[in-house]
Amino acid sequence: MDEGIPVRVITGDEETTIAVESGANLRDALLEHDLPVYGTLSQYANCGGRGLCSTCTVAVDPAPEPTHWHDAAAVRFGYPRLSCCLEVEEPMTVRLLDKYVWGQVFPRQLSPD
User: Where does the 2Fe-2S ferredoxin-type domain start and stop, copy by copy (predicted)?
Assistant: First the structure.
């Protein structure tokens, strides 16, 4: 693994660790490593990481403090976090969620390992 902050990524039954530059946007880092942040439709139609479409949701632990209004609402109401609104500052575990309709996920996916 290259220098950088280790980010453990869980996709279904698979797990990998990627190295991410400090301060990098989580969505961008996941996409750079060809990890499926979006669902089948939203991979083609999304807001491009502006925090508007809610389709790049992930479960993350430990969860950093929100800095974007939409991400703050997700924390308050227990929704998945938006990967486009998260900066990687410390090691974390990210669970990529199966997306069904647009960015919708089933609540049971949010529970940690």
Answer: 5-100
Task: Name the burial class of residue 81, with classes exposed (0-12), middle (13-18) and buried (19+) by CB atoms within 10 angstroms of its CB.
Answer: buried
pTM above 0.70, yes or no: yes
The listed CATH number (3.60.15.10, 3.40.50.2300, 3.10.20.30, 1.10.260.40) that belongs to domain 5-99: 3.10.20.30
Contact call for residues 107 and 77 (beta carbons, < 8 A): no
Do 86 and 71 form a contact (C-beta atoms < 8 A)? Answer: yes
What was the pLDDT predicted at 91? 97
Dist. CA 93–CA 53, nearest whole Å: 23
